[in-house]
Write a structure and sequence with these properties.
The chain is about 35% helix and about 20% strand. By secondary structure, the protein is an alpha+beta fold. It has one domain. The strands form three sheets. A seven-stranded mixed beta sheet has the order 1-2-10-5-12-4-3. A three-stranded antiparallel beta sheet has the order 9-6-11. Strand 1, helix 2 and strand 2 form a beta-alpha-beta unit. Helix 3 crosses helix 5. The protein is globular, with a radius of gyration of 22 Å. The chain starts with a helix and ends with a strand.
Length: about 260
């Protein structure tokens, strides 16, 4: 007995699968195009630290697939508060499995490499960051897309070994919040000084560091194990600062992050 309905269903399934494949291919190509414009990928530490930012490039990524069980580090560290800093001495003291030992060696090696480069790496287990609820319409915490500012030339370096990673917002798909009319009007209500001091007020309260993503922005996930260098906002910087934000974490989920 023939089953025309089954044949039709199989044909529809193939068409739907093909359409889905094309959709994801286009989505990946769109993400890649934005990453290609802004992110430079390298394969070793020397290129990671020595390659200058230029043109549209304001993020450099050393892509890596790391061995080891980093979750074991998180489980065995004595946590205190929302953010726990782990010193190298504490890492050395942990009793770990073979996979945990591999993870520890990578952490220590990364910290030593960065210290030798002149950086000051800090390794944290993060439960959550403090959220800014002082101005609900304009939070200035790290969960908002923002840039890092410094009075001297410097970069932000970070790597997520466990948990959710940060995201980059392409500069072409973000708008400085203080330039959005309705937001600026609300900020003006908070300020009761002379007009010429309004700009200083925005800077002093870090409002000028934050950006709003376009509704269809193609965000770039930093991923686990990759070491990233992000351009900061400092006087006479040759490139735009990199827009980024920390990930929202679910209760009970932790993040192992190195940052400097």
């Amino acid at each position: 007995m023939s089953h025309p309905n089954n044949s039709s269903t199989a044909s529809n399934t193939r068409r739907n699968s093909y359409a889905l494949h094309i959709y994801f291919y286009i989505a990946v190509m769109l993400d890649s195009s934005h990453a290609k414009e802004q992110v430079l990928y390298v394969t070793n530490f020397q290129d990671f630290v020595a390659t200058p930012f230029s043109g549209a490039i304001n993020a450099i990524c050393w892509t890596r697939q790391l061995a080891g069980d980093f979750s074991e580090i998180v489980e065995k560290v004595a946590l205190s508060g929302n953010i726990t800093e782990i010193e190298p001495e504490e890492l050395h003291a942990l009793q770990l499995s073979e996979q945990g030992h591999l993870a520890r060696e990578i952490l220590l090696s990364d910290m030593e490499l960065l210290k030798a480069h002149g950086a000051s790496p800090v390794l944290n287990v993060i439960k959550q960051y403090d959220e800014d609820d002082s101005n609900p319409f304009f939070p200035t915490d790290v969960y908002s897309f923002h840039v890092d500012r410094s009075p001297i030339p410097t970069d932000t370096i970070l790597c997520t070994y466990y948990g959710e990673s940060s995201e980059i917002l392409p500069n072409t798909q973000g708008q400085q919040k203080i330039l959005i009319p309705e937001i600026r009007a609300e900020l003006r209500k908070l300020y009761d000084g002379a007009d010429e001091g309004f700009g200083s007020f925005l800077t002093e309260h870090f409002f000028d560091l934050h950006y709003q993503a376009e509704s269809d922005a193609n965000l770039i996930k930093l991923g686990r194990g990759n070491l990233w260098r992000l351009a900061c906002d400092y006087p006479e910087s040759p490139v735009l600062p990199c827009l980024h934000r920390a990930p929202k974490q679910m209760p009970g989920q932790y993040r192992l992050l190195l940052i400097c």
